[in-house]
Amino acid sequence: MTDAAEAEVSGRAERLARWTSGYRPHPDVPDAFMDASGRPREAWTRVLDRLGDLTEVDIAARFVSAVRHIRDTGISYRIYGDNREHAWPLGSLPFVVEADDWQALSAGIVERAELMEAILADIYGPNRLVADGLLPAAVVAGSPEFMRPVAGIVPPGGRFLKLYAADVTRGPDGQWQVLADRTQSPSGPGYALENRMVLTRAFPDLYTDLHVERLAPFFQTLRQALADGAQRSDPRICLLTSGPFSSTYVEQAVLARYLGLLLVEGDDLVMQDGALHVRTVSGLKRADALWRRIDSDYVDPLELNPASRLGVPGLLEALRNGNLVVGNMPGSGILESGALAAYLPGIARRLTGGELRLSGPRTFWCGDPDSLVHVRDHLDALTLRPVATPPKGEARDAIMGPLAFGADRDRLVAALRDRPFDYVAQERMPLATTPGWDRTGGTLRLVPRPFALRVFATITPDGWRVMPGGFCRISERPDLDPGEMRAGIKAADVWIMSNGPVEPVPLIQPGAQKVRRIAGHLPSRAADNLFWFGRYVERAEAVIRLAGAHLGGVGAAVNAYLVSDARSPTSLRIRALLDDWGAISNPNLSTATLAREALSGHGTYGSALRHSLSARANAAILRERLSGEAWRVLADLTDLLDIGDGRAYSEAELVGLVERGLGLMAALAGLAKENMIRTTGWHFVDLGRRIERVINTCTFATHFAGDAATADDLGVMLSLCDSHIAFGARYMQGAALDPVRDMVLLDPFNPRSVAFQIEAIGRHLANLPTLRADGLPEPHQRLAAKLAAEFSTGEAADFDEAAIARLGHDFERLADAIATRYFPNAPNALRPEKLVGLG
After folding, report:
1. Is residue 66 part of a domain?
2. What predicted TM-score, i.e. pTM, was given to this entire model?
3. DSSP labels for 789-815?
4. In this predicted model, what pLDDT tens digit does every residue of 132-145 receive, in sequence order?
5. CB 537 within 8 A of CB 614
6. Which domain covers residue 820, as residue numbers?
7. How far is CA 672 from CA 543, 614, 656, 687, in A?
8. InterPro entries, per this entry (predicted)?
9. How far apart are CA 453 and CA 186, in angstroms?
10. What's the CATH code of the domain at 409?
11. pLDDT attached to residue 794
12. Among 402, 427, 452, where does a domain finish?
């Protein structure tokens, strides 16, 4: 062995020893790394041996790359009550489970999922469990998750649940135990998918070398499960979301993109002729299946919660008619009731003939007199929890832990006296731990941290199939419950270690689908957001160009027309226009301060930063339609412009910011041109940019190519339209009014001219769907044709200042006409009622 090889082996051994030497599980708490005898589990030994081949610097560098990918692709989550998006907190260590251990857990999950399906079928069917005394009627009828209108409805395909999940940990004996059943509409499979994608980028070889099970086959099965029971062989499957302020909206967009689903909100859907339809720019289109990601009582305000603005009036009618598949069925959230957990062992013995493989902490429903006596006698050893899941924003933890005293104990006793049926009591069960990195004292080492693992199962014609992975949340503090994503909680990719090599399986199998070139139907809401995404991007670019012209630095080496005198008439006109657009707070600011405010002002509604943030907000709604590259460039743009208030910037530095900003704008436009499929969505994005460019160019022309324009004004006009090089090559005598107007307004060869935009707008409108069967043009098409004809016959002399201003107003009317024809009539599309998400 060479000296280098010996040094490498020695360094590896030293790293492994340093990482694990101080690892000490908590007393009486099961641990994923060490078994009951204190020996490392074989799967973890394999993982650490493989990680030991990398230095700590290498591990950190790879994870920095993973964090950058999370930022660039916008993987995030929200905490209820916080409007900010938080970057997804993925840990650099996986959660590891051995193959035999996973098989035992999977068998228990399958058994439990089948039991939950049977209970639901009984509750909304014959109700034998209540009649036979196995389940108190008050537990069913008293639950806010019992949807009485669903009773008697038989789901297409006969299944209430398409996706089941359970939060599990290891019990005191080291065996898996269930913390909670998730049947309402389990969140997390999309985050499990993203965790895998991100960590695969950081450690691509580890998955193959360590024989980690793949996730793609499970998602193939999940998509098929959503389609099973639909009346058409190629069903249209929609994922119903509460909107971009849902705490799990990013996950929903990931799933829609990965599974090829249509991401819709309640406003996108409507009932017609007893069936559910999607509002699209091509008219109403039948929806065959719906993956519900809103709470049950919100799905139909006609029969369930009348205050809901998230669902579809009459949706339950489609279920009764048997022509809509919904996963999971409304009312399935009743299985998450804490009171039901108290009776689950008895129900399992009746329905399965034995004890459940996976048990949970012993539970007592305080509405039962005998259980209430037991709870009062053992209050200090139990944890009191609400029967139903509390509303969003309220604590989901116990209202009182053991050993309560003083006012806390008085509150506990009063709750049990006044409304005992609202609570369940559970025996305490501390969460098991798993290894996590700690750098206290500057040394990297492993420490035990509490975890909760969510395991998923989906139904197939042959029974339930468990995802060979899951969604794991790990607390960075021993006193923080990882039941929900929040500060101090990290996610972990879940590695199921196979006993042999694992074949890589893509989501789409070769030969599994027929070749087709149908673009699909674009929901009206998506078209609206795509259109405004294009407009906001163009507005940001216009402000950046205007700020650059004011600084007098953009292209200064080749552009003799830019002015740098801050008090010249031309500069005053630039200041006035920035003021009119709301990009600055005061037109009398210094040159550098004014440019900085126009570029990066948070308090000015018309700054380039605010427009880019608006574009990013639209992009967030369209996550399933935009590429990762486009999101990355948009993130770079907002980061570039958001320079904060920490220090003063010189004019030269601001000029550099303008140049970089315009470069990112060009990259964004190039991605849209080269990477977006030419479907209806692309037409709306580019249509928004073209119309906004016409409006901005007309505004520029009224200020800098008006009837009394000076040479400086005309130079700025050419700069704003990025036409100074072409003008200089065509005209040798300097700027004159009619030649400048011709180039920026009428030249069909100039990609920045109004004429060029009008021609592109005409092509886009010709490619958009039409609803008229008689072949006659619709109002927006008539208006566009009229403007095109007027422009094609005009000359530069015809477009004085008043005509240019009128042209800008005409294109504002065209934008309104397009909105009237294609976009939903929902001015409050992002209303406060949409701030709902599932945990």
Report:
1. no
2. 0.87
3. HHHHT--GGG--HHHHHHHHHHHHHHH
4. 999 999 999 999 99
5. no
6. 525-827
7. 21, 18, 25, 12
8. ATP-dep_Glu-Cys_Ligase-2, CP_ATPgrasp_2, DUF403
9. 13
10. 3.30.1490
11. 80
12. 427
